[in-house]
Amino acid sequence: MIVQAFAFYLFAGILILSALMVITARNPVHSVLFLILAFFNAAGIFVLLGAEFLAMILIIVHVGAVTVLFLFVVMMLDVDFSTLRKRSVSYIFPSIILGGILLFELVIIYTYWYMAPEALTNIAQDQSAFEGLSNTQALGMVLYTDYVFAFQMAGLILLVAMIGVTVLTLRKRPDIHKQRLHDQYLRKPSDVLEITRVTPKTGV
After folding, report:
1. How many domains does the chain have?
2. Is the pTM higher than 0.85?
3. Cβ neighbourhood burial of 44 (10 Å; 0-12, 13-18, 19+)
């Protein structure tokens, strides 16, 4: 228990510090790197709780895809951050008002929060079917049996969103020569090759 408590406070402390550095770092690249560090420590806390599947999903999806995408976008875009910082001063007052509203909503939510009776009923149900199974196996049994329709619909929605983003960002530029495999396959040697008989000492 002492080792687990020490590991929890270590991961939690680094997570809080890295989260603060995400919003206080002046360099956006450093903010993204601190965000990656925060995700890794959150994954460590999930492992301590026995949710290794959620830890791997957090690392693979968020660190391996989303955060790395943020990092490449920030590094590839030529953004003048000094100009953005000067403009951000004019948004301080609206930001304080918006933050106050969000804080008020969070206080209301946590003040009137209570556990639903259905949750207590689910906790009291027989869990013998999941004995001897790992966290990943138990999640798979529930996800691909009781919630398989919702899982498939979520995948379909993500597929439609991916296709929509591809279509919206596709731009046709006539000034760029692109490879057309169909035209290349149909091309004949006579279309691109001309044989000319050259008389000696006369040139082409």
Report:
1. 2
2. no
3. buried
